[in-house]
Protein backbone atom coordinates (compact mmCIF):
# COMPACT_ATOMS: atom_id res chain seq x y z
CA UNK A 1 0.00 0.00 0.00
CA UNK A 2 1.26 3.44 -0.89
CA UNK A 3 2.22 5.72 2.01
CA UNK A 4 -0.12 8.43 0.72
CA UNK A 5 -3.06 6.02 0.77
CA UNK A 6 -2.11 4.88 4.28
CA UNK A 7 -2.02 8.50 5.47
CA UNK A 8 -5.41 9.10 3.87
CA UNK A 9 -6.85 6.09 5.69
CA UNK A 10 -5.36 7.34 8.96
CA UNK A 11 -6.95 10.74 8.34
CA UNK A 12 -10.32 9.08 7.77
CA UNK A 13 -9.89 7.05 10.97
CA UNK A 14 -9.06 10.25 12.82
CA UNK A 15 -12.15 12.07 11.55
CA UNK A 16 -14.32 9.07 12.36
CA UNK A 17 -12.78 8.85 15.84
CA UNK A 18 -13.53 12.51 16.48
CA UNK A 19 -17.16 12.10 15.42
CA UNK A 20 -17.62 8.91 17.47
CA UNK A 21 -16.01 10.50 20.52
CA UNK A 22 -18.20 13.57 20.26
CA UNK A 23 -21.37 11.48 19.87
CA UNK A 24 -20.36 9.26 22.77
CA UNK A 25 -19.91 12.31 24.99
CA UNK A 26 -23.28 13.72 23.95
CA UNK A 27 -24.91 10.36 24.73
CA UNK A 28 -23.26 10.29 28.15
CA UNK A 29 -24.52 13.82 28.83
CA UNK A 30 -28.11 12.70 28.24
CA UNK A 31 -29.20 16.13 27.10
CA UNK A 32 -27.53 17.84 30.11
CA UNK A 33 -24.17 19.19 28.92
CA UNK A 34 -23.56 20.74 32.34
CA UNK A 35 -23.16 17.24 33.79
CA UNK A 36 -20.00 16.73 31.72
CA UNK A 37 -16.63 17.96 32.92
CA UNK A 38 -15.54 18.86 29.37
CA UNK A 39 -17.35 19.79 26.20
CA UNK A 40 -18.10 17.11 23.64
CA UNK A 41 -15.51 18.58 21.26
CA UNK A 42 -12.77 17.86 23.79
CA UNK A 43 -13.91 14.24 24.08
CA UNK A 44 -13.82 13.90 20.30
CA UNK A 45 -10.32 15.46 20.19
CA UNK A 46 -9.19 13.06 22.91
CA UNK A 47 -10.30 10.04 20.89
CA UNK A 48 -8.71 11.51 17.74
CA UNK A 49 -5.40 11.97 19.55
CA UNK A 50 -5.36 8.36 20.71
CA UNK A 51 -6.19 7.19 17.20
CA UNK A 52 -3.58 9.24 15.33
CA UNK A 53 -0.56 10.04 17.50
CA UNK A 54 0.53 6.49 18.50
CA UNK A 55 -0.04 5.20 14.96
CA UNK A 56 1.81 8.18 13.45
CA UNK A 57 4.78 7.61 15.76
CA UNK A 58 4.90 3.92 14.84
CA UNK A 59 4.70 4.81 11.14
CA UNK A 60 7.56 7.30 11.42
CA UNK A 61 9.72 4.85 13.39
CA UNK A 62 8.94 2.04 10.94
CA UNK A 63 9.89 4.15 7.92
CA UNK A 64 13.23 4.97 9.57
CA UNK A 65 14.17 1.59 11.03
CA UNK A 66 12.80 -0.81 8.41
CA UNK A 67 15.09 0.32 5.53
CA UNK A 68 18.10 -0.02 7.84
CA UNK A 69 17.20 -3.59 8.74
CA UNK A 70 16.41 -4.55 5.13
CA UNK A 71 19.61 -2.99 3.81
CA UNK A 72 21.67 -4.77 6.46
CA UNK A 73 20.06 -8.12 5.61
CA UNK A 74 20.71 -7.63 1.88
CA UNK A 75 24.34 -6.72 2.56
CA UNK A 76 24.72 -9.87 4.65
CA UNK A 77 23.51 -11.94 1.67
CA UNK A 78 26.44 -10.77 -0.46
CA UNK A 79 29.25 -13.31 -1.11
CA UNK A 80 32.31 -13.12 1.12
CA UNK A 81 34.52 -11.78 -1.68
CA UNK A 82 32.11 -8.84 -2.14
CA UNK A 83 32.03 -8.16 1.61
CA UNK A 84 35.85 -7.96 1.55
CA UNK A 85 35.77 -5.09 -0.95
CA UNK A 86 36.12 -1.45 0.18
CA UNK A 87 33.00 0.31 1.39
CA UNK A 88 32.73 2.43 -1.76
CA UNK A 89 32.64 -0.61 -4.05
CA UNK A 90 30.10 -2.32 -1.80
CA UNK A 91 27.91 0.77 -2.09
CA UNK A 92 28.13 0.61 -5.89
CA UNK A 93 27.15 -3.05 -5.79
CA UNK A 94 24.21 -2.33 -3.53
CA UNK A 95 23.15 0.47 -5.87
CA UNK A 96 23.01 -2.02 -8.75
CA UNK A 97 20.98 -4.40 -6.58
CA UNK A 98 18.48 -1.62 -5.82
CA UNK A 99 18.16 -0.80 -9.53
CA UNK A 100 17.66 -4.47 -10.39
CA UNK A 101 15.06 -4.80 -7.64
CA UNK A 102 13.16 -1.84 -9.04
CA UNK A 103 13.28 -3.38 -12.51
CA UNK A 104 12.10 -6.80 -11.31
CA UNK A 105 8.79 -5.29 -10.25
CA UNK A 106 8.11 -4.27 -13.87
CA UNK A 107 8.98 -7.47 -15.78
CA UNK A 108 6.48 -10.17 -16.68
CA UNK A 109 6.70 -13.67 -15.13
CA UNK A 110 8.13 -15.10 -18.39
CA UNK A 111 10.78 -12.37 -18.56
CA UNK A 112 11.60 -12.92 -14.91
CA UNK A 113 12.13 -16.67 -15.43
CA UNK A 114 14.35 -16.03 -18.47
CA UNK A 115 16.27 -13.33 -16.62
CA UNK A 116 16.88 -15.60 -13.64
CA UNK A 117 17.98 -18.49 -15.89
CA UNK A 118 20.40 -16.27 -17.82
CA UNK A 119 21.56 -13.21 -15.78
CA UNK A 120 23.54 -11.99 -18.81
CA UNK A 121 20.27 -10.90 -20.43
CA UNK A 122 19.19 -8.92 -17.37
CA UNK A 123 20.76 -5.68 -18.51
CA UNK A 124 18.92 -5.65 -21.84
CA UNK A 125 15.63 -6.73 -20.30
CA UNK A 126 15.79 -4.06 -17.59
CA UNK A 127 16.85 -1.41 -20.10
CA UNK A 128 13.69 -2.16 -22.11
CA UNK A 129 11.72 -1.33 -18.95
CA UNK A 130 13.49 2.00 -18.51
CA UNK A 131 15.84 0.79 -15.75
CA UNK A 132 19.52 1.37 -16.54
CA UNK A 133 22.29 -0.43 -14.66
CA UNK A 134 26.02 0.20 -14.84
CA UNK A 135 27.08 -3.29 -16.01
CA UNK A 136 26.06 -6.90 -16.45
CA UNK A 137 24.68 -8.17 -13.15
CA UNK A 138 26.14 -11.21 -11.42
CA UNK A 139 23.86 -14.08 -10.32
CA UNK A 140 24.03 -13.11 -6.65
CA UNK A 141 22.71 -9.63 -7.53
CA UNK A 142 19.51 -11.13 -8.92
CA UNK A 143 19.04 -13.14 -5.73
CA UNK A 144 19.80 -10.14 -3.53
CA UNK A 145 17.38 -7.99 -5.52
CA UNK A 146 14.68 -10.63 -5.11
CA UNK A 147 15.38 -10.74 -1.39
CA UNK A 148 15.22 -6.96 -1.20
CA UNK A 149 11.82 -6.91 -2.89
CA UNK A 150 10.45 -9.70 -0.71
CA UNK A 151 11.63 -8.16 2.54
CA UNK A 152 10.38 -4.72 1.51
CA UNK A 153 6.96 -6.16 0.62
CA UNK A 154 6.70 -8.04 3.91
CA UNK A 155 7.79 -4.95 5.82
CA UNK A 156 5.24 -2.79 4.02
CA UNK A 157 2.37 -5.20 4.71
CA UNK A 158 3.37 -5.56 8.36
CA UNK A 159 3.66 -1.78 8.68
CA UNK A 160 0.18 -1.22 7.28
CA UNK A 161 -1.36 -3.84 9.55
CA UNK A 162 0.41 -2.62 12.68
CA UNK A 163 -0.31 1.07 12.01
CA UNK A 164 -3.99 0.53 11.25
CA UNK A 165 -4.40 -1.85 14.19
CA UNK A 166 -2.77 0.70 16.49
CA UNK A 167 -5.06 3.47 15.24
CA UNK A 168 -8.21 1.40 15.70
CA UNK A 169 -7.10 0.06 19.08
CA UNK A 170 -6.22 3.56 20.27
CA UNK A 171 -9.60 4.92 19.22
CA UNK A 172 -11.41 2.00 20.89
CA UNK A 173 -9.43 2.44 24.12
CA UNK A 174 -10.19 6.17 24.22
CA UNK A 175 -13.88 5.60 23.56
CA UNK A 176 -14.10 3.12 26.45
CA UNK A 177 -12.44 5.61 28.79
CA UNK A 178 -14.98 8.37 28.24
CA UNK A 179 -17.17 9.23 31.24
CA UNK A 180 -19.26 12.21 32.41
CA UNK A 181 -16.56 13.48 34.78
CA UNK A 182 -13.63 12.48 32.56
CA UNK A 183 -11.18 15.40 32.25
CA UNK A 184 -10.86 15.29 28.45
CA UNK A 185 -10.07 18.99 28.22
CA UNK A 186 -7.06 18.64 30.52
CA UNK A 187 -5.74 15.67 28.51
CA UNK A 188 -6.14 17.45 25.18
CA UNK A 189 -4.52 20.63 26.45
CA UNK A 190 -1.54 18.66 27.75
CA UNK A 191 -1.05 17.17 24.30
CA UNK A 192 -1.29 20.61 22.69
CA UNK A 193 1.19 21.98 25.22
CA UNK A 194 3.56 19.12 24.41
CA UNK A 195 3.24 19.88 20.69
CA UNK A 196 4.05 23.55 21.33
CA UNK A 197 7.07 22.62 23.44
CA UNK A 198 8.23 20.22 20.73
CA UNK A 199 7.93 22.90 18.06
CA UNK A 200 9.88 25.37 20.22
CA UNK A 201 12.52 22.75 20.95
CA UNK A 202 12.95 22.02 17.25
CA UNK A 203 13.54 25.71 16.55
CA UNK A 204 16.00 26.05 19.42
CA UNK A 205 17.83 22.81 18.62
CA UNK A 206 18.10 23.83 14.98
CA UNK A 207 19.75 27.09 15.99
CA UNK A 208 22.10 25.26 18.34
CA UNK A 209 22.94 22.75 15.59
CA UNK A 210 23.77 25.54 13.13
CA UNK A 211 26.00 27.28 15.66
CA UNK A 212 27.77 24.07 16.67
CA UNK A 213 28.40 23.05 13.07
CA UNK A 214 29.98 26.43 12.34
CA UNK A 215 31.96 26.42 15.58
CA UNK A 216 33.38 22.97 14.86
CA UNK A 217 34.74 23.98 11.45
CA UNK A 218 35.79 27.44 12.67
CA UNK A 219 37.81 25.82 15.46
CA UNK A 220 39.77 23.84 12.87
CA UNK A 221 40.46 27.06 10.98
CA UNK A 222 41.77 28.83 14.08
CA UNK A 223 44.14 25.90 14.67
CA UNK A 224 45.77 26.76 11.34
CA UNK A 225 45.47 30.55 11.43
CA UNK A 226 45.89 32.53 14.68
CA UNK A 227 42.72 34.26 15.81
CA UNK A 228 44.42 37.65 16.18
CA UNK A 229 45.56 37.55 12.55
CA UNK A 230 42.00 36.85 11.44
CA UNK A 231 40.14 39.37 13.62
CA UNK A 232 42.69 42.20 13.35
CA UNK A 233 44.26 41.57 9.95
CA UNK A 234 43.88 44.31 7.33
CA UNK A 235 44.70 42.26 4.22
CA UNK A 236 42.42 39.69 2.62
CA UNK A 237 44.43 37.45 0.29
CA UNK A 238 43.45 33.78 0.80
CA UNK A 239 45.46 32.54 -2.21
CA UNK A 240 43.19 29.71 -3.23
CA UNK A 241 44.78 26.27 -3.07
CA UNK A 242 43.57 23.55 -5.42
CA UNK A 243 42.17 20.30 -4.05
CA UNK A 244 44.93 18.11 -2.69
CA UNK A 245 47.33 20.98 -2.23
CA UNK A 246 49.04 21.37 1.14
CA UNK A 247 49.84 25.04 0.65
CA UNK A 248 48.09 26.96 3.41
CA UNK A 249 49.70 30.35 2.80
CA UNK A 250 47.52 33.40 2.61
CA UNK A 251 46.30 36.36 4.62
CA UNK A 252 42.85 36.17 6.16
CA UNK A 253 42.24 39.64 7.54
CA UNK A 254 38.63 40.25 8.59
CA UNK A 255 38.86 44.05 8.81
CA UNK A 256 38.38 44.83 5.05
CA UNK A 257 35.36 42.53 4.83
CA UNK A 258 33.83 43.84 8.06
CA UNK A 259 34.42 47.43 6.96
CA UNK A 260 32.74 46.78 3.62
CA UNK A 261 29.79 45.08 5.35
CA UNK A 262 29.25 47.96 7.76
CA UNK A 263 29.90 50.65 5.14
CA UNK A 264 27.40 49.27 2.61
CA UNK A 265 24.90 48.60 5.40
CA UNK A 266 25.32 52.18 6.65
CA UNK A 267 24.64 53.64 3.19
CA UNK A 268 21.61 51.38 2.86
CA UNK A 269 20.24 52.56 6.19
CA UNK A 270 20.74 56.19 5.13
CA UNK A 271 18.36 55.48 2.27
CA UNK A 272 15.91 53.14 4.00
CA UNK A 273 15.41 54.85 7.36
CA UNK A 274 14.27 58.33 6.24
CA UNK A 275 12.08 57.07 3.40
CA UNK A 276 10.63 54.19 5.42
CA UNK A 277 10.07 56.26 8.54
CA UNK A 278 8.43 59.15 6.70
CA UNK A 279 6.26 56.67 4.82
CA UNK A 280 5.18 55.11 8.10
CA UNK A 281 4.34 58.51 9.60
CA UNK A 282 2.26 59.44 6.56
CA UNK A 283 0.45 56.10 6.51
CA UNK A 284 -0.29 56.18 10.24
CA UNK A 285 -1.13 59.85 10.78
CA UNK A 286 -2.08 61.58 7.52
CA UNK A 287 -3.30 59.07 4.93
CA UNK A 288 -7.01 58.36 4.62
CA UNK A 289 -8.14 54.79 5.32
CA UNK A 290 -8.79 54.21 1.61
CA UNK A 291 -5.37 55.48 0.54
CA UNK A 292 -3.69 53.51 3.32
CA UNK A 293 -5.43 50.30 2.25
CA UNK A 294 -4.00 50.76 -1.25
CA UNK A 295 -0.59 52.35 -0.64
CA UNK A 296 0.63 50.15 2.20
CA UNK A 297 0.27 46.81 0.34
CA UNK A 298 1.93 48.36 -2.73
CA UNK A 299 4.83 49.53 -0.57
CA UNK A 300 5.19 46.11 1.02
CA UNK A 301 5.43 44.47 -2.40
CA UNK A 302 9.08 45.57 -2.36
CA UNK A 303 9.73 43.06 0.42
CA UNK A 304 8.59 40.20 -1.80
CA UNK A 305 10.93 40.92 -4.71
CA UNK A 306 13.85 38.43 -4.82
CA UNK A 307 17.19 40.01 -3.97
CA UNK A 308 18.70 38.75 -7.23
CA UNK A 309 16.22 41.00 -9.07
CA UNK A 310 17.45 43.96 -7.04
CA UNK A 311 20.98 42.92 -8.02
CA UNK A 312 20.08 42.95 -11.70
CA UNK A 313 18.44 46.35 -11.22
CA UNK A 314 21.62 47.68 -9.66
CA UNK A 315 23.85 46.12 -12.31
CA UNK A 316 21.91 47.23 -15.37
CA UNK A 317 20.24 50.47 -14.24
CA UNK A 318 21.45 52.15 -11.06
CA UNK A 319 25.19 51.49 -11.52
CA UNK A 320 25.38 52.71 -15.14
CA UNK A 321 23.13 55.69 -14.28
CA UNK A 322 25.39 56.83 -11.43
CA UNK A 323 28.47 56.28 -13.58
CA UNK A 324 27.08 58.33 -16.48
CA UNK A 325 25.69 61.12 -14.32
CA UNK A 326 29.03 61.44 -12.52
CA UNK A 327 30.77 61.74 -15.89
CA UNK A 328 28.38 64.56 -16.88
CA UNK A 329 28.89 66.38 -13.58
CA UNK A 330 32.66 66.02 -13.85
CA UNK A 331 32.56 67.27 -17.44
CA UNK A 332 30.53 70.35 -16.54
CA UNK A 333 32.82 71.14 -13.59
CA UNK A 334 36.27 70.38 -15.03
CA UNK A 335 35.81 69.65 -18.72
CA UNK A 336 37.00 66.07 -18.21
CA UNK A 337 34.13 63.65 -18.80
CA UNK A 338 35.71 60.81 -16.86
CA UNK A 339 33.28 59.30 -14.34
CA UNK A 340 34.26 59.41 -10.69
CA UNK A 341 31.59 56.89 -9.64
CA UNK A 342 32.16 53.33 -10.73
CA UNK A 343 29.21 51.21 -11.83
CA UNK A 344 30.08 48.73 -9.07
CA UNK A 345 30.54 50.76 -5.91
CA UNK A 346 29.50 51.12 -2.29
CA UNK A 347 26.93 53.78 -3.11
CA UNK A 348 25.32 51.64 -5.83
CA UNK A 349 24.94 48.63 -3.55
CA UNK A 350 23.87 50.75 -0.59
CA UNK A 351 21.25 52.66 -2.59
CA UNK A 352 19.62 49.53 -4.05
CA UNK A 353 19.80 47.69 -0.74
CA UNK A 354 18.18 50.70 0.93
CA UNK A 355 15.27 50.47 -1.52
CA UNK A 356 14.91 46.81 -0.61
CA UNK A 357 14.84 47.65 3.11
CA UNK A 358 12.23 50.42 2.88
CA UNK A 359 9.23 48.12 3.49
CA UNK A 360 10.92 46.60 6.56
CA UNK A 361 11.40 50.01 8.18
CA UNK A 362 8.00 51.27 7.02
CA UNK A 363 5.93 48.28 8.14
CA UNK A 364 7.57 47.89 11.54
CA UNK A 365 7.50 51.63 12.25
CA UNK A 366 3.88 51.91 11.10
CA UNK A 367 2.79 49.16 13.49
CA UNK A 368 4.68 50.81 16.33
CA UNK A 369 3.28 54.29 15.63
CA UNK A 370 -0.31 53.05 15.39
CA UNK A 371 0.18 51.25 18.72
CA UNK A 372 0.72 54.56 20.54
CA UNK A 373 -2.40 55.12 22.68
CA UNK A 374 -5.03 57.33 21.12
CA UNK A 375 -5.31 59.30 24.35
CA UNK A 376 -1.87 60.83 23.76
CA UNK A 377 -2.94 62.15 20.37
CA UNK A 378 -6.24 63.47 21.64
CA UNK A 379 -4.61 65.15 24.64
CA UNK A 380 -2.03 66.92 22.47
CA UNK A 381 -4.60 68.08 19.93
CA UNK A 382 -6.94 69.16 22.73
CA UNK A 383 -4.23 71.41 24.15
CA UNK A 384 -4.02 73.24 20.83
CA UNK A 385 -1.06 71.49 19.17
CA UNK A 386 -1.16 71.02 15.42
CA UNK A 387 -1.01 67.56 13.87
CA UNK A 388 2.63 68.00 12.90
CA UNK A 389 3.55 69.20 16.38
CA UNK A 390 1.73 66.19 17.84
CA UNK A 391 3.74 63.88 15.60
CA UNK A 392 7.07 65.53 16.42
CA UNK A 393 6.66 66.11 20.14
CA UNK A 394 4.29 63.36 21.30
CA UNK A 395 3.96 60.40 18.95
CA UNK A 396 7.56 60.01 17.78
CA UNK A 397 9.05 60.33 21.30
CA UNK A 398 6.53 57.79 22.55
CA UNK A 399 7.25 55.39 19.68
CA UNK A 400 11.00 56.01 19.59
CA UNK A 401 12.10 52.85 21.46
CA UNK A 402 10.09 50.66 19.10
CA UNK A 403 11.32 52.53 16.04
CA UNK A 404 14.93 52.12 17.17
CA UNK A 405 14.33 48.41 17.62
CA UNK A 406 12.84 48.21 14.11
CA UNK A 407 15.86 50.02 12.67
CA UNK A 408 18.27 47.67 14.41
CA UNK A 409 16.40 44.62 13.12
CA UNK A 410 16.51 46.11 9.62
CA UNK A 411 20.24 46.70 10.00
CA UNK A 412 20.77 43.02 10.79
CA UNK A 413 18.88 42.22 7.58
CA UNK A 414 21.19 44.55 5.64
CA UNK A 415 24.32 42.97 7.07
CA UNK A 416 23.30 39.53 5.84
CA UNK A 417 22.57 40.52 2.23
CA UNK A 418 24.64 38.82 -0.49
CA UNK A 419 23.30 38.96 -4.05
CA UNK A 420 22.93 42.73 -4.27
CA UNK A 421 26.51 43.20 -3.09
CA UNK A 422 27.90 40.64 -5.55
CA UNK A 423 26.33 42.39 -8.53
CA UNK A 424 26.43 46.00 -7.35
CA UNK A 425 29.62 46.32 -5.25
CA UNK A 426 31.92 43.64 -6.64
CA UNK A 427 34.11 41.16 -4.83
CA UNK A 428 37.19 43.27 -4.16
CA UNK A 429 38.20 43.18 -0.48
CA UNK A 430 39.46 46.72 0.01
CA UNK A 431 39.87 49.00 3.00
CA UNK A 432 38.96 52.53 1.89
CA UNK A 433 36.49 55.34 2.60
CA UNK A 434 35.51 56.43 -0.92
CA UNK A 435 31.86 55.40 -1.41
CA UNK A 436 32.31 55.64 -5.18
CA UNK A 437 34.75 52.70 -5.25
CA UNK A 438 33.89 48.97 -5.00
CA UNK A 439 34.10 47.02 -1.74
CA UNK A 440 32.78 43.66 -0.65
CA UNK A 441 31.16 42.09 2.40
CA UNK A 442 31.52 39.07 4.65
CA UNK A 443 28.62 37.20 3.03
CA UNK A 444 30.10 37.51 -0.45
CA UNK A 445 33.38 35.98 0.68
CA UNK A 446 31.58 33.15 2.47
CA UNK A 447 30.05 32.16 -0.86
CA UNK A 448 33.27 32.54 -2.82
CA UNK A 449 35.33 30.54 -0.31
CA UNK A 450 32.92 27.59 -0.44
CA UNK A 451 32.70 27.38 -4.24
CA UNK A 452 35.24 25.88 -6.59
CA UNK A 453 37.50 22.85 -6.59
CA UNK A 454 39.03 23.30 -3.15
CA UNK A 455 40.25 21.02 -0.38
CA UNK A 456 37.56 21.18 2.30
CA UNK A 457 40.10 20.88 5.10
CA UNK A 458 42.25 23.77 3.86
CA UNK A 459 42.15 27.16 5.60
CA UNK A 460 41.00 28.73 2.33
CA UNK A 461 37.69 26.86 2.75
CA UNK A 462 37.42 26.69 6.53
CA UNK A 463 37.71 30.48 6.74
CA UNK A 464 34.10 30.63 5.47
CA UNK A 465 32.93 29.09 8.74
CA UNK A 466 34.95 31.62 10.75
CA UNK A 467 33.33 34.39 8.73
CA UNK A 468 29.93 32.80 9.23
CA UNK A 469 30.19 32.53 13.01
CA UNK A 470 31.44 36.14 13.16
CA UNK A 471 28.50 37.38 11.10
CA UNK A 472 26.13 35.28 13.20
CA UNK A 473 27.46 36.87 16.39
CA UNK A 474 27.05 40.38 14.99
CA UNK A 475 23.47 39.88 13.79
CA UNK A 476 22.56 38.02 16.99
CA UNK A 477 23.74 40.93 19.12
CA UNK A 478 21.77 43.38 16.97
CA UNK A 479 18.60 41.31 17.16
CA UNK A 480 18.90 40.78 20.92
CA UNK A 481 19.37 44.49 21.51
CA UNK A 482 16.47 45.32 19.18
CA UNK A 483 14.16 42.85 20.93
CA UNK A 484 15.20 44.28 24.29
CA UNK A 485 14.23 47.78 23.17
CA UNK A 486 10.94 46.64 21.63
CA UNK A 487 10.06 44.67 24.75
CA UNK A 488 10.76 47.65 26.91
CA UNK A 489 8.45 49.72 24.72
CA UNK A 490 5.68 47.16 24.90
CA UNK A 491 5.90 46.93 28.67
CA UNK A 492 5.43 50.68 28.80
CA UNK A 493 2.17 50.85 26.86
CA UNK A 494 0.41 47.50 27.34
Q: Summary?
A:
The protein is mainly alpha-helical. The chain is 75% helix and 1% strand. The chain has helices spanning 3-29, 40-76, 80-83, 87-104, 109-117, 122-128, 139-177, 184-224, 227-232, 255-286, 289-300, 307-334, 346-370, 374-382, 387-415, 419-424, 442-449, 459-493, and strands spanning 236-237, 251-252.
Structure, described:
The protein is mostly helical and 494 residues long. Helices cover 75% and strands 1% of the residues. The chain has 18 helices and 2 strands. It has helices at 3-29, 40-76, 80-83, 87-104, 109-117, 122-128, 139-177, 184-224, 227-232, 255-286, 289-300, 307-334, 346-370, 374-382, 387-415, 419-424, 442-449, 459-493, and strands spanning 236-237, 251-252. The chain has a two-stranded antiparallel sheet with strand order 1-2. It is flat, with a radius of gyration of 33 Å. Mean pLDDT is 82; it is low at 241-248.
Poorly predicted residue ranges = 241-248
Span from first to last CA?
Answer: 55 Å
Strand segment tally: 2
Strand residues, percent: under 5%
Q: What value does the average pLDDT take?
A: 82
Provide the structure class.
Answer: mainly alpha
Please give the order of strands in the largest beta sheet: 1-2
Shape: flat
Count of helices?
Answer: 18
Rg value:
33 Å
The helix/strand series, from N terminus to C terminus, equals: HHHHHHHHHEEHHHHHHHHH
Helix content: over 70%
Question: How many strands, what sense, and barrel or not for the largest sheet?
Answer: 2 strands, antiparallel
